[in-house]
Design a protein that fits this description.
- The protein is an all-alpha fold.
- The protein is 84% helix and 0% strand.
- It folds into two domains: 1-61; 63-138.
- The chain has five helices and no strands.
- The radius of gyration is 27 Å and the shape is elongated.
- It starts with a helix and ends in an 11-residue tail after the last helix.
């Protein structure tokens, strides 16, 4: 008899239940690890698609020197966030003893910035983007074809 069958034959019901529970916990831990790994790969792919879309926005809003200024403003605000964020997280951790509230603040600020972007996006640009999407899907004839 192997060690596992000897253990199983010589154990009572409680020991068997605990062994099955430990096996189930081990399997579920590996499932969670593999699931999170798959999600991280998916997030990486999404980020690779989001970055070019993000940097394509300033030239659509303004042209020429204004586009360069817009990109410079984005870089400046990013650097400012890189300086302020660790200080803010440290202060909030000192006040509360946890970094969780700081992460909630960062998440809420990110949502606020997204709302400002959506609200501040000019209506003409939105209509232009919607028309381009409809043309790409074949729902509209291209604008230059009707002239």
């Amino acid at each position: 008899m192997s060690g596992l069958t000897q253990f199983w034959a010589g154990s009572d019901a409680i020991t068997r239940i605990v062994a099955v529970m430990l096996l189930a916990m081990s399997v579920s831990a590996w499932v969670v690890i593999l699931w999170k790994g798959w999600l991280l790969r998916r997030v990486r792919a999404d980020m690779e698609r989001a970055i070019p879309a993000f940097w394509a926005l300033p030239p659509k809003l303004v042209t020429g020197a204004g586009a360069a200024g817009g990109i410079a403003l984005i870089n400046t605000l990013g650097q400012l966030g890189g300086i302020v964020s660790p200080v803010m997280v440290g202060r909030i951790k000192d006040m509360t003893g946890s970094t969780t509230p700081a992460l909630y603040v960062i998440g809420c600020l990110s949502l606020l910035c997204a709302a400002i972007l959506l609200y501040g996006l000019p209506a003409t640009l939105r209509r232009r983007e919607e028309r381009a999407a409809q043309e790409a899907n074949g729902q509209l004839a291209p604008a230059h074809a009707s002239r």
